[in-house]
Amino acid sequence: MNSGGGQPVPQSPLEAAPAAVRCLLDQSPLGVVEIARPPLDALPYRAFIAALLGKQGFKLDFNRLAPNEALALVSDKLLGPGAFMPERAALAADIAALAAFAGELAGAPSAIAIRTYFAPGDLVWHVDRVNERTALRLLWPVGRPAGMQVTSADNVDAALHRAYMHREHPLLSRLDTCVMRTGAAVETLWAHRPAQLAAMVSGDFPFIRDPAPIFEIAAGAASIHHVQTPEQPGTWHRSSWANRAAPGFQIVITAAAA
Fold it and tell me: What are the residue ranges of helices labelled H in the chain?
């Protein structure tokens, strides 16, 4: 989305040299690079992902598990032992390649997680945070109808955002938990808060200075953005409202260096 004209989100193929992609990322005013990826229907593991999305939403941190081990764990539990073995092997290989790519960009090991439920708190503008010295995050939301929205740091009134989140963060945390456990619609759960719900729909929160310079990553594409640390600012982003009922299969890879 770019109501102001132009497209400032730099794009790069996954095959590009990590140093070149890191240069694009560091030079981007938005702090993000878009990485083109095939649509869900073109992926060899589309049936496996569709089967997982048909189950109750979940989140899995891989921790010390290799991608093939982590996918085997969740697949055997949700779909039965040995289900979709060729497909999950192909998905594991792609996740491993993305993690290696993110690690090269950051010069640090990568931590991987997958998620199949929608967290309504993602509809609010925010930056991701870690305590390490430097960090970046690669996101690939497979099968979502819309992409992540981004804006520049100077388009956010930081003091007003802090005040807003001081009030709203506990409520958003409870909303996330309720949606994860029950699958209830955000519109229903927050029908009694029409102003906050309208901001979630539009992205025009009180702390956004101008709704025009807001841009959207292409649906189905991956992206790499800065994570806020004590030494570096993070990228301001939020999920599109269109994703609330179709969370997709979200691959989240964080590479952080101490």
Answer: 18-27, 46-53, 67-79, 85-106, 158-182, 186-189, 194-202
Neighbours of 213 (CB within 10 A): 20
- Residue by residue, pLDDT tens for the chain (258 residues) are 444 445 589 999 999 999 999 999 999 999 999 999 999 999 999 999 999 999 988 999 999 999 999 999 999 999 999 999 999 999 999 999 999 999 999 999 999 999 999 999 999 999 999 999 999 999 999 999 999 999 999 999 999 999 999 999 999 999 999 988 888 899 999 999 999 999 999 999 999 999 888 999 999 999 999 999 999 999 999 999 999 989 999 999 999 998
Closest CA to 145 of 39, 251, 44: 39
In a 13 Å sphere around the CA of 249, the CA atoms on its Cβ side amount to 20
Structure tokens at 252: 């989240």
Rg (CA), the chain: 18
User: Which residues are within 8 A (CB) of 105 and not within 5 positions of it... i.e. 6 or more apart?
Assistant: 18, 21, 22, 25, 136, 224, 255
Cβ neighbour number for residue 81 with a 10 Å cutoff = 9
Domain range summary for the chain, segments of one domain joined by +: 11-257
Q: Report the number of secondary-structure helices (H) and strands (E) in the chain.
A: 7, 10
| CB contact burial 92-119 (16+ within 10 A = b; e otherwise) | bebbeebbebbbbbbebebbbebbbbbb
CATH top class, domain 11-257: mainly beta
Calpha distance 30→9 (Å, rounded): 7
